[in-house]
Every structure is written in structure tokens, then in C-alpha cells.
Amino acid sequence: MEGKQVSGDGLPANLAGMSKNQLYDIMSQMKTLIEQNQQQARQILIQNPQLTRALFQAQIMLGMVQPPQVMPNIQAGSIAASSAISAAISAAKQPGCSIIARPS
């Protein structure tokens, strides 16, 4: 199987039509391949990204993993906060600023 690519065009549709038992069987076969020949399994997955995605989708469908959650754009918010802090520090350094540090 080394060097061959699996056609991935219909993989999502094929997965959707499979029973849970069929999906578990596929996952079991992949696990067996990994246990018997980890390097070959790795090569197959690298050469066939559609298969890799399909196996991950099967894991989600079977409840083996949780689907990835969309993360809010934290970077944009932290940049804005960082800019506001920098501006406040710059303003505090100006002569005549009335910011007084209070003892804890």
C-alpha cells in the first residue's frame, strides 16, 4: 500500500453512510496497522491527507474526540489592550500628570 494514494473525493459522504459498527471496524483496523507497522501507517496518513481527515471525522462521529472549538480572536483584543496600556503609561510620564501611586 506504500506509495499509493486513496481517492478522497467521496470520503465524507462514505463516512456519513456508514454504521457505527463499520466506523469502529475502520478505527480498529487502523489501530492494528499502527501497532504492527507504525512507520507504514505514518506514511499512509502523510500521503493521504483526505484519509487522515476522514479518520478524524470518524473519531468525532463516534464520540472518541470532541470537535475543535472556534477560538475567539484573542490576539486582536490583546493588541488593543496592549496599545491602551502603552498609551496610559506614556501619558503618565508626561509632566503635570496627576496619577498618584497609592500604597498597598
Provide keyphrases for this structure:
104 residues, mainly alpha, disordered N terminus
Helical stretch tally: 5
The tally of beta strands, per DSSP, is 0
Order of helices and strands: HHHHH
Helix-residue proportion = 55-70%
Class by SSE composition: mainly alpha
Oligomeric nature of the chains? single chain
Q: What is the first-to-last residue Cα distance?
A: 69 Å
Radius of gyration: 26 Å
Strand content: under 5%
Shape: elongated
Biggest sheet layout:
none
Task: Report low-confidence residues grouped into runs of 5 or more.
Answer: 1-6, 97-102
Question: Overall pLDDT, averaged?
Answer: 75
Briefly summarize what is shown.
Residues 9-70 form the Cleavage stimulation factor subunit 2 hinge domain. This protein is mostly helical. It has helices at residues 11-16, 20-36, 38-47, 49-61, 74-92.
